Amino acid sequence: MFAISNLRNTPEITYLMTRILSLSTILTLFTFSFCTKTETQPKGQLDIPEGTPPAKKIVYSFAEDITWSDEFDEDGLPDSDIWGYDIGGNGWGNNESQFYTSNKENARVENGNLVIEAIKNKTSPLYTSARLVTKNKKDFLYGRVEVKAKLPSGRGTWAAIWTLATKDTYGNAYWPDNGEIDIMEHVGMDQDRVHTNIHTKAYNHINGTNKGANKVVKNASTEFHVYRLDWYPNVIEFYIDDSKLFEFKKYSGQTYAEWPFDRAQHLLLNIAVGGSWGGQQGIDDSIFPQKMLVDYVRYYDLVETEVD
Q1: Fold adopted by 57-307
Q2: What residue spans define the domains of the chain?
Q3: Which of 229, 211, 187 is closest to 94 using CA atoms?
Q4: pLDDT digits (tens, 9 = 90+) for 254-277
C-alpha cells in the first residue's frame, strides 16, 4: 500500500506536495463557484412570466329556471313537440312480450298525469304498451332531469325511466357502445325495489359488469316519487326523493368504452311486459291493465362558472 507519509523529505517530494495542494485548491474553488452560480428549477415547474393570471377553476351547477318541461296539464295525446313513439315488437333485445303502439289506450294525458298503460288483449298482440321518447325533439347533453312518477306493480311488469344516445357515434354497435343511463327501473316481481344503472361497452349487464345500485322505495306503486339524474361532464349522479343513491365517475385515461357520455342523449318512458328480467318469474295475467303515472318531467341546463 503506497503512503506519502513514508517518503523521505526530498526536493522532489516537496515539489510534488506543492503541486497536489495547488490542484486541490483549484478544485475546491471551482466546486464552490459552480454550486453558488447554478440554480436548478424544481421539476415540473414552469417559468411563468410575471403578470400571468392564475388558471381559473370551473364549477358546475344547474339552471335555477326550468329549461323545458311537460307538466301534463292538457288531456289528450302527449305533446308531439316533446314526445315521439317507439313502435313495434320483436322483443326489443330483451325478449319482451309487449307490442308498443302510439294508441291513446296505451299513452295519454288525463287528470294532470301522463298515463302509460300496459294492456292484455284477447287477440294478437297479446300485450300492448307504450314507449315514449324525446329523440330529435328534446335531446340533451349534461343537465338535470326530474321525473315524478307512480310505478306499476305485479309480476311481469318492467317499468323504466331512462336515456339512450341520440346518435350512433362510438364503436361497432349502437348499444352498448354509445351508452345507456337508467334513471329508474322497477320489475314487479320484486315490488318496491328501484334500480339505477349505467351501461357502456365496458360495463353492461350482458357481461355482468354494469354499474348501479338499488333501493327499496316504500309505496313505489301507490305514491309519487321523484327520480332524478344529475349529469355532469365528469360524473353522473342518481337520486330518489333528493336522496343520492349512486354515482358513476369519469377517470383520466378512459375511452368511450368506459365513458361514452359526452354526446347527446334522449329520454325514454315505458312499461315493458315480461322479458329477460321482468319476466324471470313469468307474467301474471290477472294484474292487467297496469299503469305508470307521470306527474311531470323537468329538465334543467348545466351551467359552467369560472372561479379563481
Answers
A1: Jelly Rolls (2.60.120)
A2: 8-37, 57-307
A3: 187
A4: 999 999 999 999 999 999 999 999
